[in-house]
Amino acid sequence: MIHRYIFVVGGVMSGVGKGVTTASIGKILQARGYTVTAIKIDPYVNVDAGTMNPVEHGEVFVTDDGDETDQDMGNYERFLDIDLTSMNYMTTGRVYMTVIDRERNLGYKGRCVQVVPHIPEEVINRIKKATAHAKADFTVVEVGGTVGEYENILFLEAARMMHLADPKNVQFILVSYLPVPKHLGEMKTKPTQHATRTLNSAGIHPDFIVCRGEQYMDKPRREKLSVFCNVKPNDVISAPDVSSIYHIPAMFEKQGLSDEMLKKFGVKPKKSDLSKWKKMAEVQETAQKNVKIGVVGKYFESGDYTLSDSYISVIEALKAAAWANGARVEMDWINSEEFETSPSKLKNLSKYDGILVPGGFGTRGIEGVIATVKYCREKKIPYFGICYGMQLACVEFARNVLGKKEAHTVEVDETTKDPIIHINPTQLKNVRENRYGGTMRLGAYDCELKEGSIAHKAYKQESVSERHRHRYEFNNDYLEALEKKGMMISGVNPQTGLVEIVELKKHPFFVGVQFHPEFKSRPLRPHPIFKAFIAAALK
Ligand code: GLN
């Protein structure tokens, strides 16, 4: 089997949507009937994204096999509707760690181990392994960072070496940015020309240049870039801002990108079928119904940090669920700390069709979340709690229904009399010994569903598998007491007896899940619980 590789690198600046571009390139090849996989390379030294502050890094996307990766992996999974593994993700830290471990085990048989070639060689090994595992016709590899940076040079070197070894089966795409300075009102190509030259100096020539920008690129600029960057005019692709990222694959196809790519690879193109995808992208803009969801949590007020980056999978899952219900979702981000300083503001929650509390960590804004839960429970507003949102729903229930006023999660109150959410000895040891990297309960675990529950009705299955990322868990000592008072434990992990889903019986929709269902939601296959939540909210 011939494997073909497409490296996507960034020029000019970061934050122009290289991840979505990579996912879209994968999509247009997949839409032609090829098997496609995707790899994300993050040039930082962290071994994974799990130890990074979301303010700095955005969402930590968790794979089935429990890797804590970059949010772009979520874009790949959503666009390609495939499950990726830790093989599809690497960082500088991870690559070095493998090479150093190998050296310690005499894996280099006494040779001098050097940055070049041994680091790029390990990068290549990893790319090839992930490709073979996926039996991929095409692997799209996104090299994080921007060309010209110190950090990603070794990854570019790996890409260059792969091209040298097999030029016919390796292509490069430069994703660049064409600014339109206000005082000029004209799209400027010079930064892209420089980026191309910088890439050239790494021994790499782009096969295509994808030009991000606020507007479409006109013909003169296309021609200019063609001449100055040494790329045919047809291979300069315009990628203006669009109303939804899901329009991007079709936008590329309109400009003939996959045809050109396949031609260059020497592959006779199969027919493209993007129809379902395009329809989905349309529905989101034509849906008549509106559903208003309040997302409540503690939020970080920090410079240019955007919330949407930390909860991108939750947002996309809500959108997908809304489309599946023929509706459009409107989201408001509500800082739970508001309710601590002015509890009267809680009544503002009544204007929402549903409230969602996503995952989180730490102590800030927690009482505000608990007050939110109480409000939704009593006022019968559809409530969906994810991970921390589930744990705090249990705390609220223990306090206000069981009358255990001091009930808490030990994450916030280590010495609480009623640790309704507690920590198991292994996790406690991790925390005490400062072993934070990759030590949470991570990845896919089975969950058995109780018949007749909301969850069971939503999934229409007895047993499901969902992805996790948490350290604390429901304390089964309180299980009976809770059930007696009307909280249903509707999902349990059969191997450990850990509580995975709780819900309330006398409520239109009150569900808390210990896992992160958002990671398994796909645009064309929205997650069953998200779908049920939106359906309840629309009622
Ligand atoms: N902070 C909680 C825990 O560690 C919940 C984590 C989460 O919401 N992802 O268990």
TrEMBL record:
Gene Ontology cellular component annotations, sorted alphabetically: cytoophidium
Domain CTP synthase N-terminal, first and last residues per copy: 4-266
Enzyme class: ligase
Known catalytic reactions: UTP + L-glutamine + ATP + H2O = CTP + L-glutamate + ADP + phosphate + 2 H(+)
Gene3D superfamilies, per database record: 3.40.50.880, P-loop containing nucleotide triphosphate hydrolases
EC number: 6.3.4.2
BP GO annotations: 'de novo' CTP biosynthetic process; pyrimidine nucleobase biosynthetic process
Any GO MF annotation of the entry: CTP synthase activity
InterPro entries reported in the protein's UniProt record: Class_I_gatase-like, CTP_synthase, CTP_synthase_N, GATASE, GATase1_CTP_Synthase, P-loop_NTPase
Pathway: Pyrimidine metabolism; CTP biosynthesis via de novo pathway; CTP from UDP: step 2/2
Every Glutamine amidotransferase domain range: 307-535
Keywords associated with the record: ATP-binding, Glutamine amidotransferase, Ligase, Magnesium, Metal-binding, Nucleotide-binding, Pyrimidine biosynthesis
Signal sequence annotation: none
Keyword flag Nucleotide-binding: yes
Family membership: Belongs to the CTP synthase family.
Protein name per Swiss-Prot or TrEMBL: CTP synthase
Lineage: Bacteria, Candidatus Uhriibacteriota
